[in-house]
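Hey team,

Filing this mostly as a record. A colleague (T.K.) asked me to run one chain through the structure pipeline before their review meeting, and I want the input and output archived in the tracker in case anyone asks later how it was produced. No errors, nothing strange. Just documentation.

Input sequence:
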Amino acid sequence: MTMNSLNAYLDLFRQIDSTDLSQAHSLVSNDYRFQDPFNDFRGSEKLIRLLEQTRKDVRSPRFEILSIWESPTEENRVVKWRFSGLAPVIGKMDFEGFSEISLDPSGRISAHVDYWDSGVYFYGRLPLLRLPMAWIRKRLSL
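Output structure:
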């Protein structure tokens, strides 16, 4: 994986408010897959829709890249990031997560899988679910 390919791809997220999202077409492979706690889709068009939706729904969205780890194979990286912004109903969001990012042989991003705790940082902050989620956490904790 070239750092240029990875950095250009990560810029779609880091510069979400100002970047030309159509760049995604040249950065991801034809069979690109994105997965996070809410989505599991293929293709650059859906990636662009996801980023546009984030722009629309979250005020001042910000992705900060905290670190990048290499895997033993050249085609994979693990990226630790922090996301922040202001979302309706939920309010201020600020949490960390990890992404596993893979490249195809031509150097384009072929997969992006996000790992973050949607129970704590999303569902547990929705007014209708806040109390039931707190009760469940309390019930399951030591």
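Quick notes for T.K.: Helices lie at 3-14, 24-27, 44-57, 118-121, 127-140. The radius of gyration is 16 Å.
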